[in-house]
Design brief:
With 344 residues, this protein is mostly helical. The protein has helices at 2-22, 24-43, 47-51, 58-76, 130-142, 174-189, 196-217, 219-256, 262-281, 288-295, 302-312, 315-325, 330-340, and strands spanning 45-46, 88-90, 98-104, 114-116, 120-122, 125-127, 146-152, 165-166. It is globular.
């Protein structure tokens, strides 16, 4: 009997070792992410600690109170299970904390994807260590992919853990901050395997709709914030619309130049990118954020273009569904997705 047990144990250990060897990069990445997340969670302080701290700026305390009120609204008005989320905050001390790498094929609008257990295929990879993000960025560039490296202001563990607030988001306007919280809380309610673009579009859509609901409910306290937020949404829509209109143009271009030399492909691609940049610089935005954005030099490539598809490519379809199928009622639409799609 002992001999059989030893053989089974030896076989199990052998299988584990083989798995670790084959999947070492995945295991290493998972360990880094877990270590980074738990370090932040361990060092986060309860929001009330900041509210009771006399040296903490009153303007930032107001933002914390807003987060608490948005959470309360999400629970009482939307039925979200948000009690444990954003009870604590991690002080970034003004530094960036997370970096996200995305990539795309150079001559077609198609994401490079990674495959993870449970989550399935994912078109971005996050890091808490900047050097690791830079390393992956360079590796992908060396393979010929279009790559985008950006920072991130929040992440969601999809309700598995109690996520902390990150202090840098307190610099956001009230509208952007409320939308961020609603966006991340939506991920806790709905996140479908192998559907990253759909998940992000849905969270972005509900984030906007629930922020509008919130400000309408709190109109006496946030009338100016609501007006500023609506102007912000209008600018965002115009920017998204501009880039969405270019996506089929790039699709057509890449089909036309399929048999061209690499040099010719690059020249044609460069021409379209410069045309897009010119159109972007001529946009008449109203809010400082988008005015500054239109004047900034941006590294536009396929990974950059696909980021707009990831977060806003389905917004018009979702808006149409809201009006036609759910009589303009976001809660009915939310309940539909909660009931008909299996969330992770």
């Amino acid at each position: 009997m002992k001999s059989v047990f030893r053989k089974i144990s030896l076989l199990a250990i052998t299988i584990l070792i083989i798995f670790l060897i084959i999947k070492w990069d995945l295991v290493r990445y998972g360990w880094q992410q877990a270590k980074g997340q738990f370090s932040i969670m361990y060092n986060a302080e309860p929001l009330d600690e900041y509210l009771n701290n006399t040296s903490f700026a009153d303007s930032l305390k107001a933002k914390i109170r807003l987060v608490k009120d948005v959470k309360s609204f999400a629970k009482s008005e939307l039925g979200f299970s948000s009690e444990g989320q954003y009870q604590k905050m991690y002080d970034q001390k003004g530094k960036e904390l997370m970096w996200v790498v995305t990539a795309a094929y150079p001559y077609k609008l198609e994401n490079y994807e990674w495959k993870f257990p449970v989550l399935g295929k994912v078109s971005y990879k996050g890091f808490f260590i900047k050097e690791e993000a830079l390393k992956l960025e360079q590796e992908l560039k060396n393979k010929g992919f279009d790559v985008r490296l950006r920072t991130a202001s929040a992440w969601s563990t999809l309700g598995w853990l109690n996520d902390p607030l990150l202090s840098n988001v307190l610099q956001y306007s009230n509208g952007r901050l409320a939308e961020l919280i609603f966006h991340e809380l939506t991920h806790d309610e709905i996140f479908i395997k192998d559907s990253v673009d759909f998940n992000e579009n849905l969270a972005s859509f509900f984030g906007q709709e629930f922020t509008k609901m919130y400000f309408e409910k709190k109109s006496d306290n946030f009338s100016q914030d609501y007006e500023e937020y609506l102007t912000h949404l209008k600018d965002r829509f115009e920017l998204n619309q501009l880039i969405r209109n270019y996506l089929p143009k790039f699709d057509s271009l890449y089909q036309e130049i399929e048999g061209y030399s690499t040099t010719e492909k690059e020249n044609q691609k460069y021409y379209f990118i410069e045309k897009l940049k010119n159109d972007l610089s001529n946009q008449q935005f109203k809010t400082p954020k988008y005015i500054e954005f239109s004047k900034r030099e941006i590294n536009i490539n396929n990974a950059y273009l696909l980021s707009y598809k990831r977060y806003s490519g389905h917004q018009q379809i979702l808006q149409q569904k809201l009006e036609e199928q759910f009589n303009g009622e976001p809660l009915r639409m939310l309940e539909f997705y909660q009931k008909n799609f299996n969330s992770l």
